[in-house]
Amino acid sequence: MNIFRFLAISLLLVTTGAAQAERIKDLTSIQGVRDNDLVGYGLIVGLTGSGDSANSAPYTGQSMRSMLKRLGVNIPDGVTLDTKNVAAVALSATLPAFAKPGQKIDVNVSSIGNAASLKGGTLLMTSLRGVDGEVYAIAQGNVIVGGVGVQTANGNSVTINVPTAGRIPSGASVERAVPSPFANGNHLVLDMHSADFTTANRIVDAINETFGKGTASAIDGGSIAVRAPATVGEKVGFIAELENLELTPGDAAARIVVNSRTGTVVIGRHVKISATAVSHGNLTVTVTSTPQVSQPNAFAGGNTAVVNQENVNVSEEKNPAFVFDPGVSLDDIVNAINRVGASPSDLIAILEALKAAGALRAELIVI
Hints:
Blueprint: H1 3-18, E1 22-23, H2 24-27, E2 28-30, E3 36-45, H3 58-70, E4 86-95, E5 104-111, E6 122-129, E7 135-142, E8 148-151, E9 157-160, E10 165-174, E11 187-192, H4 197-211, E12 216-220, E13 223-227, H5 232-242, E14 246-247, E15 255-259, E16 264-267, E17 272-273, E18 276-278, E19 283-294, E20 305-316, E21 322-324, H6 330-339, H7 344-356, E22 360-361, E23 363-366
Parallel strand pairs: 15-23
Antiparallel strand pairs: 1-14, 2-11, 3-4, 3-6, 4-5, 5-10, 6-7, 7-10, 8-9, 11-13, 12-13, 15-16, 17-22, 18-21, 19-20
């Protein structure tokens, strides 16, 4: 199947589904109810000689010295610690909304030194901090690594996936809850994932039809204010009913998204083209070099030499021009491009030319 015909069928299926009813839960999020990112720095121990080298990662030795000092072990000055079984790592985690002290969250660990692998290591107790500098979780546990790295004595190495990054499932315990505005006041704000005035208006209508006129009002094209019960228990039940309301969102604006690196082209359902004619052909220049031997006569006194004979051939594809009638649809565009056998790079060039000529009735986004 031609790549563009497959693209057209896929897009038509997507846009057909987009016209169906969707839940408010899938279109919006509640303002203030969000995840929070945490970050930390720690040490992974127990590695089998695949840790940081003392020369290339001196901070690993400094961290070991500080940790041992806190545990009552004093290392004399001038003593260099062997860190081949230790790796310094950066930690990251996501603190979900409404997470309470004692709950467990997953932790990602990534080497920041020159460790070859974190496989088999154990993360020592490390604090995870938020953007405000406060500690919200404590991490510790065995690291699961999906990659493998092997290095021989002569310097050859084989690496599968990424052995210097891993994960600790349920590796951190929440120590502090993030204050949430959810329980405060008798109203909430719904933030739409994609701002659209038509969809915002339809959300307001759906809420008011169910809970009564004046319950919801649009703040702008991306936010809706909703009156809610003041008590937390009633508010939870109210939101549970509200987020399952269904409505038909407005159609997205006409857009064409082009990924110039991969050649991926996504054409929206409402893309239109004004009356225009397009001709696109590729010019190919081929240069070949054929070696030939020059052999002098027996009594000429010359030397045998190799002479290259170069041939230049110029060819151009004879692609016919195709005509777009005013307001053609997505299917017409793809069919016309299929007829001339355009490649993804050809399609990108055609779309850019149509936009420059003012014939493309859509926003062309190149990423």
